[in-house]
Design brief:
The structure holds 3 protein chains of 3 kinds.
Chain A: E1 4-13, E2 16-26, E3 31-35, H1 42-50, E4 57-62, E5 65-66, H2 72-77, E6 80-83, H3 95-107, H4 121-134, H5 149-162, E7 167-171, H6 179-192, E8 197-201, H7 205-211, E9 214-219, E10 222-227, H8 229-234, H9 236-243
Parallel strand pairs in A: 3-8, 3-9, 6-7, 7-8
Antiparallel strand pairs in A: 1-2, 1-4, 4-5, 9-10
Helix pairs in contact in A: 3-4, 3-5, 4-5
Chain B: H1 3-34, H2 41-59, H3 62-83, H4 93-115, E1 131-134, E2 137-140, H5 141-163, H6 165-175, H7 177-182, H8 187-209, H9 220-234, H10 239-267, H11 270-295
Antiparallel strand pairs in B: 1-2
Chain C: H1 9-30, H2 35-59, H3 68-83, H4 89-111, H5 116-136, E1 146-147, E2 153-154, E3 157-158, H6 162-185, H7 187-197, H8 199-204, H9 209-235, E4 237-238, H10 245-258, H11 265-283, H12 288-301, H13 305-316, H14 322-333
Helix pairs in contact in C: 1-2, 1-6, 1-13, 2-6, 2-9, 2-10, 2-11, 3-4, 3-5, 3-9, 4-9, 6-7, 6-9, 7-9, 10-11
Classes of the chains: A alpha/beta, B mainly alpha, C mainly alpha.
């Protein structure tokens, strides 16, 4: 059974077909990369998978459940978590509060009116682990708005981790990061491989080829080709359209 | 329930609707383009009414009174925009609400200081103090004139917005304010102009309404709130939406007040009907708004957003 | 040397204020000014109403311009049963919670279908709806209001005297403030505050923001209704004017002036607002021509209100402690 499966997924904006009959089959435990030129529709597809965008056709199955009609929070509660390409955190909360709220939201609920959130043992443990993995444990008490850009991206990722996901949709986690910061994230993702199934959207080709078990190439909303990194490297059409002969 | 009475009430509803449109048009444009919540719009209506009352008292000319109202409201609107409103565009709606709330309290008290708390009465101009014959019955000429004038303003506004360059800027601004600014249009001037123009319409509405409604402190708020209902029902930012919604709201309110108590007496016992009838009638437009929002939160005729 | 949390200005000033209010009945009686009790009771009641609004507005970011509706419903929850010969406080309270709960649930559910400007306008319109409904009920006083002959009796406690209302209101305010502080850091409060900052994120982590916002609106409405119940007992009178939109506006001013989303903001705001109003009344009968522009100023300046000001004082204080001076002296000596 697939971890995540889409069948003929479609999204139209007026006359423009942004997602064109996309069928994906993500194997449990794999790290599946999604690459494609700018404007290929990668973020739109992620939004359809996470539930933020309603699809105009096709289905999304998460495990053995059809989630096509489920709203964002319902998918998150079932373990389908995402991180955002443009950092989307709680600026006024501390790093720890950001992570703990994420841990609480997906696996429990917030219908508690008296005991402080940070005293919730389960949520706290999950948050601490996620922050340690992402290297933010030292910065736990810093308001998120005061973090450096790279740290904000790390927080973005750790919020998805804190929610103890089964499946991670990562939308360009290394966007705007320095080489050193990217290396840290690549190392983190290496550790996460196998624990979670991951669909990774990235432009950083070094990261993609180092991490991915399989790669799908999205061009003009269509999945042009899915294969192993080696197959992608050698595929002539993919080289022409996206990679350019020099990049390899 | 005679046909003449029904026709008269329909015309009254139309007249009220047209008045509401004059207020709602400026309000919805300012909401739609500058995203600014202006609760002080009712104060501009009130100041227009007072200006008209003063001018009429001094000159005896109703035409002059309307011009005075338009001028006073235009000036006041311009000053408010430059001094207070323009500083708040980037802030959130709460700050808009707070600031304009303060302005409302200020103007209501100011008016009480200058003119006293008692209502001012403005006479219907002699030329329009008779009646007109419509389909075999007599209807007050003044109210008929309001309908005609209001429809003329609506037609003028339509022409301005759809057939002129300024109108094109306004429509563009409603769809994409940032783009218009990026195109090098002096957005500050456009905003000030827009705000002042909306204020002028409100002032004219105040002048026009002054012979029918009493001119006094606090007269602006009930009409303002009804205008807000119009905008919500019509769709924020849409002037044509405001027009249709204003007529609908005007008719629902007038006909409701005229016929609901009567209808209630037909279906319930007298004591209940006498209590529930007027209650339902006064709540009528809010029930309409609640129903519209429950079914179509974006309003009945929403503006197309880019 | 670490300054104790309690001694920081942002907590100390409000706590001193509360202590002062606790002692007020004695002070008033001793000074021979019993009418102070009624005056400050009114401030405390509005502080409760502002605390209620703070949950929806301060924590949740829901700009409700119609909260006076719940205040008014609370008043009539006393006035109407009293009219029908019932002085039983529990009956009054039941009607209060029931009416405001249902009203908040229905108006909240409809209003939350919108956001931004539309939300503000709809709540304003719902407040007006309540106002006009009550004005049209001529049998129950209509525009003139309804006198209350049978004040709420809760067993031996009769809210018929200003002192009884004062003590009860103080107790309610203290509990509401304490709960508000706990709520702020509890999962519910964190979710609300998170949704105000970033609604998209709240959904993405698995929390349906709308459900929590509606719950906050209902809680806020019911607590505001309780304030209304106390107000009706204080005045022995209920009037539709309590539901007017200007009262809703004044509640918003109190919350913002005090410091939106802070624990003590509502108390500070209510005291500042009503205190200033009273002070101005002593100077001129045309209070609003001065107060109006002051409110405009509060909107223009903003910056977290009085609570925000006190928090900035928090940060200044540690500089005055001995530690840095000692450390510098040691460095010079070595």
């Amino acid at each position: 059974m697939s971890a995540l499966q889409t069948h003929a997924l479609v999204k139209r904006y007026g006359g423009l077909l942004v997602t064109d009959q996309v069928s994906l089959d993500i194997v449990p435990g794999e790290l599946h990369a999604l690459i494609g030129p700018n404007g290929a529709g990668k973020t739109t597809l992620i939004n359809q998978l996470s539930g933020e965008l309603a699809s105009d056709g096709g289905t999304v199955r998460f495990g053995d459940l059809d989630v096509t009609a489920l709203p964002v929070h319902e998918r998150a509660r079932r373990g389908l978590l995402r991180s955002f390409q443009i950092t989307s955190i709680f600026e006024d909360f501390t790093v720890l509060e950001n992570a703990t709220l994420s841990a609480l939201g997906a696996r429990e609920h917030a219908w508690r009116f008296w005991r402080p959130m940070l005293h919730d043992a389960n949520a706290r443990r999950a948050a601490d682990e996620a922050l340690s993995s992402a290297g933010l444990a030292q910065r736990a008490d810093v308001p998120a708005g005061e973090l450096a850009y790279g740290e904000r991206r790390q927080l973005e990722l750790s919020m998805a981790l804190a929610a103890q996901p089964r499946f991670l949709l990562l939308d360009e986690p290394m966007a705007g990061m320095s080489a050193q910061e990217s290396a840290a994230v690549i190392e983190l993702l290496q550790r996460l491989k196998g624990c979670y199934t991951i669909l990774l959207v990235e432009h950083d080709m070094d990261a993609v080829f180092a991490l991915a078990d399989r790669i799908s190439v999205l061009v003009h909303g269509r999945v042009m080709f899915t294969g192993t990194p080696a197959e992608i490297r050698d595929h002539p059409e993919v080289r022409a359209v996206y990679l350019g002969d020099d990049a390899l | 329930m005679s046909a003449t009475l029904l026709l008269a009430q329909l015309l009254n509803g139309l007249q009220y609707g047209v008045l509401l449109f004059l207020l709602a048009a400026g309000l919805t444009l300012v909401f739609g383009i500058m995203s600014f919540v202006n609760l002080a719009h009712g104060s501009l209506y009130m100041m227009g009414a007072y200006a008209a009352a003063m001018a009429f008292g001094a000159s005896g000319s109703f035409a002059l009174a309307v011009v005075a109202a338009a001028g006073a409201a235009l000036f006041l609107g311009w000053v408010l925009e430059v001094v207070v409103v323009s500083r708040l565009y980037r802030r959130n709606h709460l700050d808009h609400v707070l600031a304009t709330f303060g302005l409302v309290l200020f103007f209501n008290e100011l008016v009480r200081i200058v003119w006293g708390p008692q209502p001012y009465f403005v006479q219907v101009p002699d030329a329009l103090s008779g009646t007109v014959d419509i389909l075999g019955f007599s209807y007050p000429s003044y109210r008929f004139a309001i309908i005609a004038a209001g429809l003329a303003v609506a037609a003028g506004a339509f022409l301005l917005i759809h057939k002129t360059r300024v109108g094109m800027l306004i429509r563009a601004g409603a769809q994409n304010p940032q783009m218009v600014a990026a195109l090098g249009v002096n957005i500050r001037l456009l905003n000030a102009l827009l705000f002042a123009a909306g204020a002028m319409l409100a002032g004219v509405a105040g002048a026009v309404a002054s012979p029918i409604l009493s001119v006094q402190s606090g007269m602006g708020e009930p009409v303002l709130i009804t205008a807000l209902v119009v905008i919500v029902v019509g769709g924020i930012g849409s002037v044509s939406g405001a027009f249709y919604a204003a007529l609908i709201v005007g008719l629902v309110d007038t006909l409701g007040r005229a016929y609901l108590p009567m209808m209630m007496r037909g279906i319930a016992e007298r004591s209940i009907a006498d209590a529930a009838g007027p209650a339902l009638a006064s709540m009528g437009i809010y029930l309409l708004m609640a129903v519209v929002l429950a079914c179509r939160p974006q309003g009945l005729f929403p503006a197309q957003r880019g | 040397m670490k300054t104790s949390r309690v001694l920081r200005p942002s907590t100390l000033v409000p706590l001193l204020l509360l202590a002062g209010l606790a002692l007020l009945p004695w002070v008033a009686t001793a000074a021979g000014q019993p009418f102070w009790i009624a005056f400050f009771a009114r401030i405390i009641i509005y502080a409760i109403a502002a605390s209620a609004l703070n949950i929806a507005l301060g924590y949740g970011g829901l700009v409700s311009f119609g909260h006076a509706l719940f205040l008014g419903l609370g008043c009539y929850a006393v006035a109407l049963p009293s009219f029908f010969e019932s002085g039983n406080g529990w009956v009054h309270l039941l009607w209060c919670v029931g009416a405001t709960g249902v009203a908040a649930l229905v108006t909240g559910a409809i209003s939350l279908r919108t956001s931004g400007i539309a939300f503000i306008m709809i709540t304003l319109a719902f407040g007006q709806m309540g106002y006009f409904l009550l004005v049209s009920l001529k049998n129950f006083g209509g525009d003139d209001g309804l006198p209350i002959s049978l004040t709420s009796r809760f067993g031996p406690l009769d809210l018929g005297s200003p002192l009884a209302v004062y003590c009860t209101s103080f107790a309610v305010l203290a509990m509401a403030t304490w709960w508000s502080a706990r709520l702020r850091a509890a999962p519910f409060g964190m979710t609300l505050r998170g949704a105000q900052q970033n609604a998209r994120r709240i959904s993405a982590i698995g929390l349906p923001a709308l459900h929590y916002q509606l719950a906050a609106y209902v809680i806020s409405g019911v607590l505001c209704g309780v304030a209304g119940l106390l107000l009706a007992n204080l005045n022995a009178f209920a009037s539709p004017s309590t539901m007017s939109w200007t009262v809703s506006g004044e509640l918003i001013v109190m919350v913002v002036l005090g410091g939106m989303g802070s624990v003590f903001g509502p108390l500070l705001g209510a005291v500042a607002f009503l205190g200033l109003e009273e002070a101005l009344k002593g100077v001129t009968e045309h209070v609003w021509v001065v107060f109006g522009p002051l409110i405009v100023l509060v909107a223009l300046v903003g910056k977290g209100g009085i609570a925000g000001l006190l928090q900035r004082l928090d940060r200044i204080r540690p500089v005055a402690t001995a530690a840095p001076v000692v450390a510098a002296a040691e460095e010079v000596a070595s």
